[in-house]
Amino acid sequence: MAVKQTPVKQTAVKQIGLHVHSFSLRYQFRYHQLTRYDVFDYIDEMAQRGFTGVNVSANGVGYRDLGGTTAGHFAAVSDALAARGIRLELDTSDTSVDNMSTMLRVAAACGADTLRTYTKYSAPLSEVIGWTVRDLRAIAPLAADLGVLVVLENHEDFTGPVLAEILGAVDHASVRALYDYGNSQMVGEDPLAALAAMAPFIERVHAKDHVLLRGPDGALVQGVPFGSGRLPVAEITDRLYAAGVRRFCFENVWSYTAPLKCATDELPATECFRFDEPGRYLVGDRLPATSAVSEERVAFDDGLRAFLEMLESRGYQVQAGR
């Protein structure tokens, strides 16, 4: 399904940029020998579908979905984006100064305007907060010099108020927040409560859908095609827009799972914490490669269709150039 775009103009219509995350098609990348799909195919496909930008995971060996580690590869990615007139957000993890300094330079070389990160420290919360503030303060001047916005994600770890505390302490225009529609569930926080706390800092978002299940090893969050879960996705979208967010990233999280990090009796009583049918449990990593590749495509198309229909029904239009 192609995204409808409108020319850049001043109107009362709710105009937004629309990105797509490479995690949405992670099995196309992972099983490259089967699909022959790489970052350049991804850029081509998403430009043709009408997205205004792409998000690319660059975690791990070989920079994962970015697919290369050389200056020549970074330049080729930058050229491919420029030729198609779309933007790039790059993903890393680990706020350490060494990692962030390296990845900020990689992001700039690839032509990215944003670098997503999250903490990987394991320690008492007060220490993790202090270390994360220290890291982000240290790399903020480099981010500003390179013209790359750093966004700290609520990634299954910090609640909204804690993330807001960190960014308030960093207090730098080049370090802001990425709000994920569903990640607060893992720490037993309602997504709307997380949004309210983070709102003054949010610049980027990941739009996805989840359900809650009782799995073989305990309660967990299950990723499902957008529109088929229990997250209040329309209300979240409207509140984000009201808070000033103008770029939304669609992320297909079909077959993704993450354990709850709190007791079930501590969960909020809101709809998104109501347990769903256990038959929806699915771990894509356990599927045969051919099944994962084909079923992921179906989930991507179904979820994207639902996302675009939701946006259109609420008066949003995708604007080229965002």
What secondary-structure arrangement, pairings included, does this model have?
Blueprint: E1 5-6, E2 14-21, H1 26-30, H2 32-35, H3 39-49, E3 53-57, H4 71-84, E4 87-91, H5 97-110, E5 114-117, H6 125-146, E6 149-153, H7 160-170, E7 175-180, H8 191-198, E8 202-207, E9 210-215, E10 218-223, H9 233-242, E11 247-250, E12 257-259, H10 289-313, E13 316-319
Helix pairs in contact: 3-4, 4-5, 5-6, 6-7, 7-8
How would you describe this structure to a colleague?
The chain has 322 residues and is α/β, with parallel strands linked by helices. The protein has one domain (13-209, 224-253, 301-319): Divalent-metal-dependent TIM barrel enzymes (TIM Barrel, Alpha-Beta Barrel), CATH 3.20.20.150. The chain is 39% helix and 20% strand. Helix 5 links the parallel strand 4 and strand 5. The mean pLDDT is 95.
Please name the CATH topology. Answer: TIM Barrel
User: Strand share of the residues?
Assistant: 15-25%
The tally of domains stands at: 1
Radius of gyration, in Å, reads 19 Å
Question: In one word, what is the shape?
Answer: globular
Strand order across the biggest sheet? 2-3-4-5-6-7-8-11
Assign the CATH superfamily: Divalent-metal-dependent TIM barrel enzymes
Count every beta strand, where a strand is a DSSP E run of 2 or more residues.
13
CATH architecture: Alpha-Beta Barrel
- The number of helical segments is 10
Major sheet attributes: 8 strands, parallel, barrel
Give the N-terminus to C-terminus distance in angstroms: 20 Å
Order of helices and strands: EEHHHEHEHEHEHEHEEEHEEHE
